[in-house]
Amino acid sequence: MHLSPFCLLLVLAFPAGAQSVRSATAPMSSQDYSLKSRNQRTTARVLLIGGGLVAGTVVYATLPGKSVSLDVLPLVGGVGVAGGLAALGSIPLFIAAGRNRRKAAPIAQVEVGTLAAPAYAGATPVFGPTLGLRISL
Fold this sequence. Notes:
- The chain is about 55% helix and about 15% strand.
- The protein is α+β, with helices and mostly antiparallel strands.
- Strands 1-2 form a two-stranded antiparallel ribbon.
- The mean pLDDT is about 80.
């Protein structure tokens, strides 16, 4: 039996409908924002490092004294521009990751700890319990 490429694509894509999808109307939790921020930051780092390495390699390969054939120069230039654009494309991802990290931060946080009470010279410091409330704006 011979399947056309379109039928094969349909057969392969059929199980994708069974995957769970979060409802668009459900609000994202703090953990969702944190995971999204971490993924965006990782993607941005990959683009920045990879694009920088590609662009740097092209710049190094085309320095005076290096032998680059004139017939491959447009290809090398295109690869260098693509690497530079990939590095520049990481900037919006870093910005979005920071925005999602701020959304993942708790709005109000209660802190319980100890604080050293002032002591006179030569005396041992006295520690007392403290209760604090931090509100992020």
